[in-house]
Amino acid sequence: MVKVKSQPSLRGRALQALARREHSRAELRSKLLTHVTEADDLGVLLDDLERRGWLSDARALEQTVRIRSARFGTQRIAHELRQKGISEELINASIPQLKEGELEAARNVWQRKFTSPPQDQKEKAKQVRFLQSRGFSMDVIFKVMRIQDDDA
């Protein structure tokens, strides 16, 4: 006898996604949209998950910040949070926390990527572009580069 594996319900899919990691409401909504049937009410489901405390934009923001802050700058993390559909109000509230460790994170990222300070302008420009691509502000980048120049 062959067992047919039934598809999980919309609620089941939502809970599976939330069990793997935190999601913002907008992120989970877009993930579930392809599985909605006529009988499903996605808005009611998301409201219920939020009311029970299983879905939280604030927790999704905290998790993203915690994971990304060691490798990326404030600008890149804020951009990623916007893409996840997290409100500007929550993002703006997290910016001081992000900026707090940004210089140290930029220095660590720079040290992992480059073994020595830039020897010429071309190399310096390359290192600056690399740090910019990681979302670090020019202010922080210049501080990191100045520290490296002082060490040389």
Number of strands: 0
Q: Report low-confidence residues grouped into runs of 5 or more.
A: none
How much of the sequence is in beta strands?
A: under 5%
Structural class: mainly alpha
Question: Cα distance, first to last residue?
Answer: 73 Å
Shape: elongated
Helix content: 55-70%
Mean pLDDT: 90
Order of helices and strands: HHHHHHHHH
- Characterize the biggest β-sheet: none
- What integer value in Å does the Rg equal? 21 Å
Number of H/I helices: 9
Write the layout of secondary structure elements.
Blueprint (H helix, E strand, L loop, with lengths): L9 H11 L4 H8 L9 H10 L5 H12 L5 H10 L4 H13 L1 H12 L7 H13 L4 H14 L1
Helix pairs in contact: 2-3, 4-6, 5-6, 7-9, 8-9
Structural account:
The structure is a single chain. The protein has 9 helices and no strands. The protein is mainly alpha-helical. Among the domains are: 8-55, Arc Repressor Mutant, subunit A (Orthogonal Bundle), CATH 1.10.10; 102-151. Helix 2 packs antiparallel against helix 3, helix 7 packs across helix 9 and helix 8 packs across helix 9 (138-151).
